[in-house]
Amino acid sequence: MSETFLLPEGHGLIRRANRADVPEIVRLLADDPLGQTREAFTDPLPESYYRAFEAIEADPNQFLAVVEQGGRVVGTFQLSFIPGLSRQGAWRAQLEAMRIEYSLRKQGLGQVVMEWAMEYAKARGCTLMQLTTDKTRKDAHRFYQRLGFISSHEGMKLKL
Amino acid sequence: MSETFLLPEGHGLIRRANRADVPEIVRLLADDPLGQTREAFTDPLPESYYRAFEAIEADPNQFLAVVEQGGRVVGTFQLSFIPGLSRQGAWRAQLEAMRIEYSLRKQGLGQVVMEWAMEYAKARGCTLMQLTTDKTRKDAHRFYQRLGFISSHEGMKLKL
After folding, report:
1. Which one, out of A77, A158, B66, B140, has a CA that is 20 to 30 A from the CA of A102?
2. How far apart (Å, rounded) are the C-alpha atoms in residues A131 and B153?
3. What's the pLDDT tens digit per position in B14-49?
4. CB-CB neighbors (< 8 A) of B124 in chain A
5. A94 contact B CB<8A
6. What whole-number distance in Å separates Cα of residue B29 and Cα of residue B41?
7. From B149, which residue of chain A is nearest by alpha-carbon distance?
8. Residues of A in contact with B62 (CB under 8 A)
9. Secondary structure, 3-state, B95-140
């Protein structure tokens, strides 16, 4: 398995997700007040999840990660590396769909994972990391602010 | 020139940007209260802008557009098409670096351009469009809200 990264302090490892991880990732996305209304964690999973996984895997500017502890998937996030002319041609890393297993929260795992993601984005040449988080997720806001994120922007969405 | 799209009501056309457009795009990015502190609109332009253009052009999930009227570049935006597992494997279109020439604002051009972008994103299979806009850009918030965008998220940024 290529691209496996050991986390400090016994927090497990981070690696690029493979197809067999898709159900566990969807489980994490669905185990959430907002996610449970949007996802379909069924057996078998809707084929749309696998099509999305293939699109992610085919795009070298996407990094879908799982966090693993003792062989179990306990977290996930996706980084999108976006080239742009703004800010003198800066690459930005966008974080989407970050989830840590409920039972493991408040133990520092999220912070270690984010610190890893920030280092990885820097190593990929990004000078900015960005994310949007639902205005109802007050805990998440505090979590990201502690890491240095600034709530400088309105995050706007439109269903097409 | 491939991928040229005529806008309705004499608003000009939208086309994929080419390398020769880079200085005009940077001019638009720099002609802005926030952009003027971040961009370097010099002659010659910093090489970093051209490297960024090449990265955009090499990525089939990026669409950097210019809006043209009578042969002049009067607007620009970038769409990033992002595959993800969330929302049952939905593709999302992210809008970045949208600018319309100051002298042409409040004439409906921005709205026509956004309506085009929404149709294009739908045709690319996206079910969600998203953007972040600086909290100080109150006019932009109203503009996007009129188009149906919901300010549901905090947009957070971190310099790496």
Report:
1. A158
2. 9
3. 999 999 999 999 999 999 888 888 999 999 999 999
4. none
5. yes
6. 9
7. A158
8. 82-83
9. EEEEEECHHHCCCCHHHHHHHHHHHHHHHCCEEEEEEEEECCCHHH
Chain A, nearest residue to B158 by Cα: A149
Backbone angles phi, psi at B127, to 5 degrees: -115, 0
**Nearest C-alpha in A relative to B114:** A158
Cβ pair B62:A46 closer than 8 A: no
- Tell me which long-range contacts A45-50 makes (C-beta under 8 A, separation of at least 24): A46/B88, A46/B89, A48/B88, A48/B89, A49/A22, A49/B85, A49/B88, A49/B89, A50/A19, A50/A22, A50/B89
Closest to B157 (Cβ–Cβ): which among A38, A128, A160?
A: A128
Q: Which among B121, B127, B133 is the nearest to A154, CB-wise?
A: B133
Give the nearest chain A residue to B145 (CA atoms).
Answer: A156
Least Cα distance to A28 among A79, A65, A80 occurs for A65
* Contact residues, chain A, for B120 at CB < 8 Å: none
Rounded to whole angstroms, the Cα distance separating B95 from B81 reads 9
CA distance A126 to A83: 9
Q: Set out the domains of chain B in order of their start, with CATH numbers.
A: 4-146 (3.40.630.30)
ipTM of the complex model:
0.95
